[in-house]
Amino acid sequence: MTNDDARIDRIIRDCSLYQCLECGKCSASCPRLLTGKEYSPRLLAHKLISERGDEAFIENSVWECLTCGLCEERCPSGVEFSRAIVEMRTLLASKKGMKGYRAHDGALHSWMRMMTSPKLEQNRLDWVGPEIKVAEKGPLAFFTGCAPYFQVFFSGIEVDTLSIARDSIRLLNFLDIVPVLIKEERCCGHDLLYTGDRENFELLCRLNYEEFKAAGVTEVVTSCPECFLVLDQYMPEVIPGYDLKTTLLIDLLEREMKKGGKAFKPLSTRATYQDPCRLGRYSGRYEGPRNLINMVPDLAFVEMENSGRSAICCGNNAFINCDAYSKRIQVERLKQARATGADLLITACPKCMIHLTCAMRDPLKSGKISMAIRDLVSVLAEQIEWKG
Amino acid sequence: MERANLLGICCNWSPWACYNAAGMARLKMPPNLRVIRVMCIGRINQALILHAFEHGADGVILLECQDEDCRYGPGPEVGHTNVEKVRKLLHLLGIGQKRLVEKSFAAHEKQELVDALWEFAGQIKAMGTNPAKPRQEREAS
């Protein structure tokens, strides 16, 4: 790794790894370590700084992280650990062609890379029916992301990711907004970025930007926290002069609800909420989703043992590292959800929904951990109505 | 389109016997077809088929045993499910469902296998280049 010393030095400096006090709070809070995996963020930071010769350890550890950001939340020195992980993955992927242990043999990354082809003529809008109003050109677009692809790929575990997109557009239509759906929109590239494929990630960013511009879009609304993270924080880094506004659907909805004239129909159920890491710790949206849930009459909202800033990850990220330890994290999380006595688990990220639904299907444990799971957008789209 | 990149994924049992017999009988086969022998088509998952397209295949044909002939049990059924799902993904990507073909053979059907391969080669030639070819290959051609 000696040739890359300068690059690693820069990563260490940029991500404040020298500030590490070796207190070990990161390792003590890491869900991966707590479920028994031999992985320690503290030790990785230490090895990167002073024992760089231990390539085997570093190369293994860099791909173990879930980038859930819980260690950063706990770190008293402000070490940007997740960013260091992404930069290290980019370095190892470009130098050594490393990819990490990819779930589903990398099928998802494969279609994401195929989308970097500029000549593609996708059929991604086949699901749009007469029940929703969409436009081809206009100032505001809705970013569907990989929903149509997940719908096909995860049909085996009965996760309806397209319903989230459909319900998002129903909500926008309700608010008298007719969003543009772009036919040649690509994946946002989040999973390629977090598996170190910076080159193809940037290609996807550029293609998406060109598509937005061609449709005359100035504002992009998305309901997926990962797409939001990429469009809001990473695309301006990649594209010089980036001038699109990115809005999270729940932010827009909260603003609209405050204006009045709209209300939610009562929903008598007891519900709990899973904070997606990209929505909570990465984008700071803790209050918004809770405010919206609390606006629904008759809905009894209960928090899980670990919630908000200390919420536990759904067990996977960027479709790598799906193993027995991920499963344990998911089972623990679902047990927490069941312990609240809630009938419904609300989440705000399609990936949380996919991973937790998959864990619920365990034939031996499902009786103890399965429960109804729905996306926040779907719950709200069902309940919203005009008032007065 | 100069030369299509065709990939055949061939089960070790009935289809491989056909392929071998066709070779012994010197039957002419499409020259631009590369064949990978696997123990059973049930070993091939969706990712492996997608990787072929990602790395520049213009068409992929799965050569498998007939349902009741599988030496292991569920091989061809696994193949049918995978083909059905990958075709949907190929349709979404706009690559074309017909670029993925699935054919089953009994152990003596060497002529049928060769005919199927030529038909496949013709069909892919008519469809043209895979629009999702990797960047390196697009730049080279």
**What is the ordering of alpha helices and beta strands of chain A?**
HHHHHHHHEHHHHEHEHEEHEHEHHEHE
Biggest sheet record of chain A: 4 strands, parallel
Main sheet record of chain B: 4 strands, parallel
Characterize the overall form of chain B. Answer: globular
In which range does the helix fraction of chain A lie?
40-55%
Number of strands of chain A: 9
Q: Could you say what the CATH architecture of chain B is?
A: 3-Layer(aba) Sandwich
Mean pLDDT of chain A: 95
Give the N-terminus to C-terminus distance of chain A in angstroms.
Answer: 67 Å
Q: Output the number of helix runs of chain A.
A: 19
Spans of chain A of at least 5 consecutive residues whose pLDDT stays below 50 are: none
Write the H/E string of chain B, N to C: EHEHEHEHH
Any idea what the radius of gyration of chain B is? Answer: 15 Å
Neighbour order of strands in the largest sheet of chain A: 6-5-7-8
Structure description:
The complex is a heterodimer of chains A (388) and B (141). Chain A is α/β, with parallel strands linked by helices and 388 residues long. Chain A is built from 19 helices and 9 strands. Chain A folds into 3 domains: 2-96, Fumarate Reductase Iron-sulfur Protein, Chain B, domain 2 (Orthogonal Bundle); 103-254, no CATH class; 258-386, AF0625-like (Rossmann fold, 3-Layer(aba) Sandwich). Helices cover 47% and strands 9% of the residues of chain A. In chain A, strand 5 (269-274), helix 15 (287-295) and strand 6 (299-301) form a beta-alpha-beta unit. Chain A is globular, with a radius of gyration of 21 Å. With 141 residues, chain B is α/β, with parallel strands linked by helices. Chain B has one domain (6-140): Rossmann fold (3-Layer(aba) Sandwich). A 4-stranded parallel sheet of chain B has the order 2-1-3-4, with helices on both faces. In chain B, helix 1 (14-24) packs across helix 4. The N and C termini of chain B lie close together (10 Å). The model of chain B has no long low-confidence stretch (mean pLDDT 94). The A-B interface holds A 104-107, 110-111, 113-117, 119-124, 126, 148-149, 152-153, 155, 203 and B 45-48, 50-51, 53-54, 85, 88-89, 91-95, 131-135, 138.
